[in-house]
Amino acid sequence: MKLGLLVNNVDTEKSDYTTTLIAKTATNMGHEVSYISIEKLSYSINDTVYANSVRVPPGQYHSLELYLKILHSKKAILEQTTIDKLDVLWLRNDPAEDVNNRPWARLAGINFGRLAMRHGVLVVNDPSGLNEAINKMYLQYFPEEVRPRAIITRDASDIKHFVDQEKGYAVLKPLSGSGGRNVFLIHPEDKFNINQIIESVAEDGFIIAQEYLKEAKNGDTRLFLLNGKPLKVKNKIAAIHRHKDGDDDIRSNISAGASTQKAKVTPQMLELAEIIRPKLVRDGMFLVGLDIVGSKLMEINVFSPGGLIGCERYENSKFCQEIIRSLEHKAEYIKRYNRHFNNTEMATL
Questions:
Q1: pLDDT tens, 131-147?
Q2: At 288, which helix (H) or strand (E)?
C-alpha cells in the first residue's frame, strides 16, 4: 500500500506525534509511507496532483526517535510523488496552526484532497466532512444531549448575558483554534475584567461561550473512534485521560502541558460515542478523537488527533496496527472495484 501523510510541515514533525507512530507502524508493516508538506502540493496541466515528498527507506524501525531522525536526515528518500497514484492520502495537517501565519494553507489539504479523489485515491478523513468540521462549530450539529450549552458570537453583551445565566461560570475559547490557546475559565469574580478577556479571545475571530462542567477540573478523556466505533484491540479501548496541573487551568491539551494517565472508559462515554456515530460515518470520519468530560462531548478532533502513543503505552496494545489494517482492507476493496467508489462511504467502511 502506498500511503501519503499530509502534514503542515515535515520539518516540524516530532517523535511524540501520533502521525510519527502512524508512519512508523505502516512502514514496519511493509507499506510505502510518504510525508508531504502542505506547500509542496501542486496541480499540473495534465490534471494531475503531485508533490515533493520525503520518506524513510524500507525496513524495521524500533523507535519513534530513530524513525524521525532518519526522516529528517540525508538518508531520507526525496522524490516527486504523484498523489493520484497513492492508495491512500491521509490529511493529517491541522488548519488551526495556519490561521494566522499561513491562511492560504488552511484549506489546501481539503482542496487538493478533493482533486485526488477524482482519480480514485482514498482520502481520509473525507475532505467534504473535514470542510464542515473546519472549526469548533461542528460540535453544534450533534444532539443537544451530548454537548454543553453554548453560544457562538463576537458580541460582548451576549457573552456577558450568557455568563450571567450560567451563574458567573463559563468557558470562553476561539471558534477556530487548537492546542488550548486563548481558553479561559470565567469565575463570578472575573466580571470586572471580562471585557479584557473577551477582547483577547476575539483576536482569533468568533468566540464560543460554553457551559462550565465541574468535572473539567479533573481533566478529560480522549477517546479514539475508528470507522465510527471505539478503537479496540482485544477488548482494550484506545483512550487516554488528560489532566492539567495548576489552579483554574482547565486546558487538558498535551501541547499545553497536560499530564496523562490510563483512562477509565465508562458506559456513558460509550453511549455518547454511539449517539454521535451516525453523523461521523455519514461525514466520512475515518479516525477521530473525542474529548469527553463527564457525560458531555467538549470537542471532536477530526484533523490530527493526538495521544495514540499514550493509549498504546497504558493499554499495552497496538492500536495503530489496527488502524493500518483497516486502511489495508479499504485499499484492497478499491483495487477490486477498479477505483470506482464513494469516498465518504469507503472512508468509514
A1: 999 888 899 999 999 99
A2: strand 287-293
